[in-house]
């Protein structure tokens, strides 16, 4: 159901310069940021250039600090459980590589895992760690009973992606969290596509570690991300790279580790982008992520139902609960070509190759799909224009795709 009035929607669209130029359905790639986010970044950079980098930091220290509070509020964490990163891969990798595994240990994951996470898993397999992949059932749902069956005394970690970058579905992270807690297994969630799209509450999820990026549904600038590490788990992770932000009392005999999650960060980063991330989080919180999620579902449902009436268009989304990422293909036409034609006409969609979610794509024998990822600031009319263009593309002679091969 549409829960946001046209008046409210127009405000958000007026807040976003990009909305007047393009139809943007690549929010799972990078959303259009609100103008206030970019203005914050630019103003801070100018201030640095005018007064000096350190001087500007001292002057703005309270605002920079506030970004941690805002992220904590977004995910229901403590401020001392948040670290800021340049992207989700660095956040995820810092946590994962900080864990210690012995040969014979087991890690359980899902078929929808993101490529970065699979690279990390592939590396620990070389050290004798067993990786168990729980495949979705025939309906595309994560089978909780199989997870319970897979857990044994050697299981050291459960690792899942909440909203995968392909497939249109959602994993039941709260239920998985209950199981992880029942068996006392460490639990790590990739919430990259979740942040800003779907409400996150780390206490309800009962996760120990959670990572996310800024540029996707959060509408923050590129080059931002964050990591949550539960207070009681922080000492179980070794920081893989440290500078003076992480350690004090440094001598050749050792050092004292910082007492919060910022021990996993490095000191030098873009303060301008940190503030931009904070602004984006604040913007989402002001709307309410639960309200954003309702509207995203409404628009994605509308898109799926419109697509289903276009001859030649197949929606590939799986699972009983679906997100704002709609994946589809057009019969006889290469998905990259479909993507290019839409983009040529000012409609931003993306091409999803096999590389992002290799296990899932191979299982479903998908070479590539087109991905239309909807955000709350999109409109029904934008969806209708995508559909009318798709009708023409689907009708067009499929030899066009032969020519590009
Ligand atoms: C995009 C994405 C990532 C990686 O995020 P980066 O910020 O590009 O490092 C990780 N997991 C999922 C599910 C993603 O969609």
UniProtKB/TrEMBL annotation:
<keyword id="KW-0808">Transferase</keyword>
<dbReference type="InterPro" id="IPR015421">
    <property type="entry name" value="PyrdxlP-dep_Trfase_major"/>
</dbReference>
<dbReference type="InterPro" id="IPR020578">
    <property type="entry name" value="Aminotrans_V_PyrdxlP_BS"/>
</dbReference>
<dbReference type="InterPro" id="IPR015422">
    <property type="entry name" value="PyrdxlP-dep_Trfase_small"/>
</dbReference>
<comment type="similarity">
    <text>Belongs to the class-V pyridoxal-phosphate-dependent aminotransferase family.</text>
</comment>
<dbReference type="GO" id="GO:0008483">
    <property type="term" value="F:transaminase activity"/>
</dbReference>
<dbReference type="InterPro" id="IPR000192">
    <property type="entry name" value="Aminotrans_V_dom"/>
</dbReference>
<keyword id="KW-0032">Aminotransferase</keyword>
<dbReference type="Pfam" id="PF00266">
    <property type="entry name" value="Aminotran_5"/>
</dbReference>
<feature type="domain" description="Aminotransferase class V">
    <location>
        <begin position="25"/>
        <end position="383"/>
    </location>
</feature>
<keyword id="KW-0663">Pyridoxal phosphate</keyword>
<dbReference type="InterPro" id="IPR015424">
    <property type="entry name" value="PyrdxlP-dep_Trfase"/>
</dbReference>
<protein>
    <submittedName>
        <fullName>Aminotransferase class V</fullName>
    </submittedName>
</protein>
